[in-house]
Amino acid sequence: MHELISEHVIVTGIVLILAVSAFVAVASYWASLRVAKIFLPSMSRWLAMLLSFVWNIASFYILSILVWAIFTFSESDLHFYEPYVQISNAILSRFLGFSFFLFLIVESVILIIRVYRFPVGQRVPWRRALWRCVWPLGAIVLCLFIIGVALDVPASNLQDKTATAIQYIQSQKITLNDVDGTNLPPQPYEPENDATVAGVDKNNNGIRDDVELAIFAKYPNSEKIRAAELQYAMTEQMFLTQVFNTDTWKAVAEEDARAYTCALSVISYDESVQLQNLVFNTQTRQTAEQKAFEFTTSHGSTSGNACDIDLSLLSN
């Protein structure tokens, strides 16, 4: 399956590169052809051919940079499995330059042959000639600039949304009021609780109410275990509610690893699995968890204590 997806990414990347190269080639060829038509009446044919060739290279270079910047900027905001992103980047870095160069050679030869066969037209004043040479390329550059700005708006919004989500993820902590039951919520209505992925969280502490109540029911006499399990339940819940790209997945995964370390200091592995099953207790939530893990990427570990609350200060 992974080989098939990788092959699909490679084929798609090559086709996209060829399409981008063709667009740049056609645009620069058109602009250079206009230069030749304008300058041909005012100078010898070989000089008009040379100027159109130079303009072809310049316009091709300018358009290539703009299209490359827009394309790579947009590609970086796509969200695939990390290995597939690496494959895509490898295709771009190794083949895009070659395809541009190949298209440039082909269109340059066609341009020279075309200019060589041009009939000499009416002479045009140099100011008008200069304007006629510049405006086609300028119009294309302006269109690409507008496209870049249009792509930048949602990307900037996504960056702001990501930064806000990461700040929220890292700020979520278990408090003593959560552990001692001061903030204990009422029993949720099951159909309402299971109607959404997030479920019901009446006390707004980041832990689904049915999970929180189940932990208290299972460990009524151990604040240490409740503290560790509540912290782990909170980070597991964030996979359902806070992950929408690789950056947010990484932030949740780091907090979850810390909570898992805390939990295993007071409970067994089997008990941690039971808690996971409690958090991801419906098919909808299991599907949401799988979707969140599509953004899996490498991550480090957070500094400081594994537990939000020093377990040595708690009873039992």
Structure description:
This protein has helices at 2-39, 45-76, 82-116, 126-171, 176-180, 190-193, 209-218, 223-241, 246-264, 269-279, 283-292. The chain is mainly α and 316 residues long. The protein folds into two domains: 2-160, no CATH class; 172-313, no CATH class. Helix 7 packs antiparallel against helix 8 (223-241). It is rod-shaped, with a radius of gyration of 30 Å.
Distance between the termini: 49 Å
Shape: rod-shaped
- Beta-strand percentage range: under 5%
Radius of gyration over alpha carbons? 30 Å
Please give a handful of descriptors for the protein shown:
rod-shaped, 72% helix, mainly alpha, 2 domains, 316 residues, 11 helices
Topology:
Elements: H1 2-39, H2 45-76, H3 82-116, H4 126-171, H5 176-180, H6 190-193, H7 209-218, H8 223-241, H9 246-264, H10 269-279, H11 283-292
Helix pairs in contact: 1-2, 1-3, 1-4, 2-3, 2-4, 4-9, 7-8, 8-9, 8-10
In summary, what is this structure?
The protein has 316 residues and is mainly α.
